[in-house]
Design a protein that fits this description.
Layout: H1 10-18, H2 23-35, H3 37-59, H4 66-77, H5 97-103, E1 113-116, E2 119-124, E3 131-137, E4 146-148, E5 152-158, E6 160-163, E7 166-169, E8 173-176, E9 185-186, E10 192-198, E11 202-204, H6 207-216
Antiparallel strand pairs: 1-2, 2-3, 3-10, 4-11, 5-8, 5-10, 6-7, 6-9
Helix pairs in contact: 1-3, 2-3, 2-5, 3-4
The structure holds zinc ion (ZN) (2 copies).
């Protein structure tokens, strides 16, 4: 199992469990969870809480009490909830199974488009409230400098990148919000492939990416 240091946040995992995320974000969470035992276990805890709330609401007309939630959490803490099943990633692919299912193929089926300076991307069709794309950054190369209007989550599938003094490797997710203005740089040694999702258009700083932005459609 991949050693993962940068995880998804509880609010995101909870929203995933509740089914309130945009499709692109669901894809991100499902892909991360397929590589990460820790986050998968957390999602299953949230699922159990949500299921218990639904069950109890059906039995009792009264509103769901905090007691029932506490009782459910106690069940989880006590180990009454079954352990998470093993991840089912097809071993010969760097693409997690949910991503393979989503694009209906493997890495060889990805249609890359150059966005300049060796960087390539493939936009994945998804619902309009967010965008999803695969990024290919040559070893040692930088992503265009940009800020965000919304939340951006970037998960490494191959290689690694360095951003804001931290290193992100396979399975790690960087969560960037509108306060972060950043330039991730692919680590040397291996080309970096990432899955990136965002719920707002990126704001690029330098001229070249700004010209390219309409073509990037992000
Ligand atoms: Zn995780
Ligand atoms: Zn970013």
């Amino acid at each position: 199992m991949t050693r993962i240091n940068h995880h998804l946040s509880d609010p995101i995992l909870m929203a995933y469990s509740a089914g309130t995320l945009p499709e692109a974000f669901n894809l991100m969470v499902a892909s991360h969870v397929s590589l990460c035992d820790e986050c998968r276990a957390r999602v299953e805890s949230f699922d159990a809480v949500g299921g218990a709330i639904l069950e109890d609401s059906a039995l009792e007309v009264a509103a769901m009490s905090d007691d029932a939630l506490a009782a459910t959490m106690a069940l989880i803490a006590g180990g009454a909830v079954e352990p998470a099943p093993k991840a089912s990633v097809r071993k010969d692919s760097i693409l997690p199974a949910p991503l393979q299912d989503y694009i209906g193929g493997d890495l060889a089926d990805v249609k890359w488009r150059s966005v300049g300076m060796g960087v390539k991307q493939a936009i994945l069709p998804t619902s309009k409230d967010a965008s999803a794309r695969l990024l290919y950054i040559p070893a040692g190369a930088a992503m265009p400098d940009h800020g965000h209007r919304g939340i951006e989550m970037t998960m490494v599938l191959q290689g690694a990148f360095i951003d804001e003094g931290e290193r992100f490797a396979r399975g790690d997710v960087e969560i960037a919000d509108s306060d972060l203005d950043h330039t991730p740089v692919a680590d040397i040694g291996e080309d970096c492939i990432c899955l990136a999702v965002t719920d707002g258009p990126l704001q690029f700083k330098s001229l070249l990416p700004k010209i390219a932005q309409p073509f990037l459609r992000i």
